[in-house]
Amino acid sequence: MGVVSLKEIVDRAFGERYGVPAINILNDLTLQSVLAGAMEARSPLIVQTSVKTVKSIGAPVLFAMWKSMTEHVDVPVTLHLDHCPDRAVITQCLDLGWNSVLFDASQLPVEENLRQTIEVVAEARAHGAHVEGEIEAITGVEDGHGSDEVGARQTLEVSLDFIRRTGVDVFAPSIGNAHGVYASEPVLDFDRVTALVGAEPVPIALHGGSGMTDDQFRDLISRGCAKVNISTALKMLYLQSSLSHTQKSGAAGKWDPPTVFAAVSSDVREMTTALAATFGSAGKAW
């Protein structure tokens, strides 16, 4: 199948009530590894790039990597720009060929957020791309974006008005979730997802997935969370695996970076297949 639109992936997941891993990659190794994991699991996959990653690697280089590595991928995959408040970065990524973007204007007043999101949706449509919208800041700092302060939630009516007037393809509500590492098991507002989906059948994006329990994932996915974001878990695994295998190389006196890279890649691939199994997307490729 290969590269498809975000909407094609999340609409199927939403209709069949499974979740698709939306994993924030860091570099070429993690990109290659999550793609390999998706193919092994026969799962659709949303590959996410933070603004920090886009800027550190360079958007043209990052997109060239994506084009090259997805050339022979045979499961549905899509490239998504995560949490971006910068309209210039959104334009750059859409121009290059990103399939979707999350325009994060959650720090703005709702009406200004709505006005600009309508513009971003129009811009994305001109590129055949899709948009995830957000009006409430998800607690926690991720890749230099966000705040540890708990933001105010909007009413159901305000959220529904935003979804309907902007025409966003995916909506990311605040339900007690948070970016980063949870100090304890999060207390989540499951009913808020049910209320949103019951009033407006739009696929929901679940942010702050790293650290949630399998039961929490499955419950939220059954209610309409079709896109499940994973970022911190990958960062932790990548660094811990790199450290562990580097230390083993040092102890053995064998300084062979490709051996470490292969071990880290295997760990990331296994994480991807495990997420697909937990979220119900394994075997759902078409």
Tell me the overall shape: globular
SS strand fraction? 15-25%
SS field, number of helical segments: 11
What is the CATH topology descriptor?
Answer: TIM Barrel
Span of the ends, CA to CA: 7 Å
Estimated radius of gyration: 18 Å
The number of distinct structural domains comes to 1
Instruction: Note the run of SSEs as H and E.
Output: HEHEHHEHEHEEEHEHEHEHH
Structural class: alpha/beta
Number of strands: 10
Key terms for this structure?
alpha/beta, two-stranded antiparallel sheet, 8-stranded parallel beta sheet, 286 residues, 11 helices, TIM Barrel
How is this structure best described in words?
It is built from eleven helices and ten strands. It is an alpha/beta fold and 286 residues long. The chain has a single domain (6-279), classed as Aldolase class I (TIM Barrel). The strands form two sheets. It has an eight-stranded parallel sheet with strand order 8-5-4-3-2-1-10-9, with helices on both faces. The termini are close together. The mean pLDDT is 92. The active site is at residue 82. This is Fructose-bisphosphate aldolase, class II. Dihydroxyacetone phosphate binds at residues 180, 208-210, 229-232.
What is shown here, in short?
The protein has helices at residues 6-16, 28-41, 51-57, 59-69, 87-96, 110-126, 156-166, 190-199, 214-223, 232-252, 257-279; strands at residues 20-24, 45-49, 77-84, 100-104, 130-134, 140-142, 145-147, 170-171, 204-206, 225-230.
